[in-house]
Amino acid sequence: MLNVYGSEISSRLLLGTSRYPSPSILVEAVKASGTQIVTVSLRRESGGSRAGQGFWSIIRDLGVRVLPNTAGCHSVKEAVTTAHMAREVFGTSWIKLEVIGEDDTLQPDVFGLVEAARVLAADGFEVFPYTTEDLVVADKLLTAGCRVLMPWGAPIGSGRGLNNLFGLKAMRAHFPDVPMVIDAGIGVPSHAAQAMELGFDAVLLNTAVAQAVHPVKMAEAFAQAVQAGHAARLAGPMEPRDLAVPSTPVIGTAFLS
Q1: Which of the residues 96, 140, 169, 217 is marked catalytic?
Q2: Of 3, 8, 13, which is closest to residue 218 (Cα–Cα)?
Q3: Is 96 labeled as catalytic in the residue annotation?
Q4: What digits encode the pLDDT tens for the residues 18-70?
Q5: What is d(CA 113, CA 96) in angstroms, rounded to the nearest whole number?
Q6: CA 227 to chain CA centroid, nearest Å
Q7: Burial of 6 (0-12, 13-18, 19+ CB in 10 A)
């Protein structure tokens, strides 16, 4: 079980809800993934026109937990305001905190992220910060009140997988007891399996499923990959070796000249 902010979650795959070809495909993909947590942007809701109520009704009917996000926010003030609106709209203290600092890579503004996390944690939010693999930033986020870390694998929507294996391994080793979710950049199921094999607790993705030729089949593939990667981690993978080691012992066997 994955424990985040006191909630027990059996699925280790978190799924985004944007850019699907149709609402029906979104519903089928969520079901195929087996996820219990979906991320939702406040921009899908419109307080004046109620334009987002159809989408929100679909999400409610899925029976999954909602993790609102502050996607598209570029300042502390904007992120904090969006988080407060999301808490009112979605009725949850969970918030996936994004403070974007660079438009081309959508890299987090880690300075603003820490400040916004501190403000929101003090106001009762349970913050899931989208961050880099920087150890100093991670420590400051934990000090600010975060109990989960969500380092990026690669830029959002890039599908490049885990760009900085050394940094991610170091982060996992440095904070062994902190739940960590690889967020962003996952492109294919093998990327997700690799993240789980490294010891991360879950994977969050959106584009890799939503923009696949067959989103429902891809959602199922990612569910299997996350399970396989986690099982492999628990099984204790062998360490890589520089030399070959025969799988069949030669000691004690007959030698024919």
Answers
A1: 96
A2: 13
A3: yes
A4: 999 999 999 999 999 999 999 998 764 444 445 567 788 888 889 999 999 99
A5: 11
A6: 15
A7: exposed
